[in-house]
Design a protein that fits this description.
The structure holds two protein chains of two kinds. By secondary structure, chain A is mainly beta. Chain A has two helices and eight strands. Chain B is an alpha+beta fold. Classes of the chains: A mainly beta, B alpha+beta.
Chain lengths: 174, 89
């Protein structure tokens, strides 16, 4: 019997990120296309794979019963974290410059939704029936950094954030 | 010029928001403080001035089972009780 492999999706060029102000989304579990267009598309500003949300779940050993000769591992609490977001900016311009759009949008101390679309070419506009992961985050201090020390390094901002809540695999409606 | 402003969105909600988003959304920028007196960010408010609060959906069965008025409690032969609210803050 021939083995058939499941369909897979390439990563290259198929991750898109939007930053949306918290007040504009009325129901994060029922995300709409209009919610995304009210936000700012940040994909072309971000270096690397920043802004990815992961859940770290605690594990521990259950109390051992008298009859047990093996230990049992149990699952504990989950902590959701978001990786630092490094994005480009123009040091010699103010926040009205297009090159500083993301710097202007990501004000520290504010709350925004970070909407992550995986598996669709970045050039494609947000549309109904696409799936998104949405995280409500608190934005941290924007550190002025560089992408590296080589001849091709660029000035950047590296900003941390904390996750309030995440909604996974939301099917967007029109 | 401050990067954080108090703005009124099309929905009527007033929020402390980045000036970038206020311009992007064509929101009306208000001449009001963005922070509370204690330094915390002012929360979102409705046009009435009341804060925007998340609505918790209560299962309909539990709402139907709860007497709505003290009069209906008396008619049902139960003790008078506070009418239940289907909205939680």
């Amino acid at each position: 019997m021939a083995t058939s492999l499941p369909e897979t999706t390439k990563v290259l060029g198929t991750r898109s990120v939007w930053v949306i102000p918290k007040a504009t989304v009325t129901n994060p579990a029922a995300l709409k296309v209009a919610d995304l267009t009210a936000g700012f598309k940040a994909t072309c500003f971000i270096y690397g794979d920043g802004g990815a949300v992961t859940g770290e779940q605690q594990k521990g050993d259950a109390p051992k019963k008298l009859c047990e000769t093996k230990s049992r591992e149990q699952l504990g609490t989950v902590k959701e974290t978001i990786s630092d977001i490094q994005y480009s900016y123009k040091p010699q311009a103010d926040n009205t410059d297009a090159a500083n759009a993301m710097k202007a949008a990501m004000l520290d101390g504010t709350q925004v939704y970070v909407a992550d679309r995986l598996g669709v070419q970045d050039e494609a506009a947000p549309a109904a029936d696409q799936y998104f992961n949405l995280s409500l985050v608190n934005l941290g201090f924007p550190n002025r950094t560089r992408t590296g020390d080589d001849d091709f390094a660029e000035y950047s901002i590296t900003q941390g954030a904390t996750v309030e809540q995440t909604w996974w695999d939301i099917k967007v409606t029109a | 010029m401050s990067d954080l402003v108090r703005a009124r969105l099309d929905s009527g909600v007033e929020t402390s928001i980045a000036r970038f988003f206020a311009d992007h959304l064509n929101a009306e920028v208000l001449d009001e403080p963005t922070h509370e007196a204690d330094g915390s960010l002012r929360r979102d408010t409705l046009p009435s001035g009341n804060p925007v609060k998340p609505r918790v959906k209560v299962p309909s069965a539990s709402v139907e089972a709860t007497p709505k008025t003290p009069a209906s409690n008396k008619a049902a032969g139960t003790e008078a009780a506070e009418p239940a609210s289907s909205e939680k803050e």
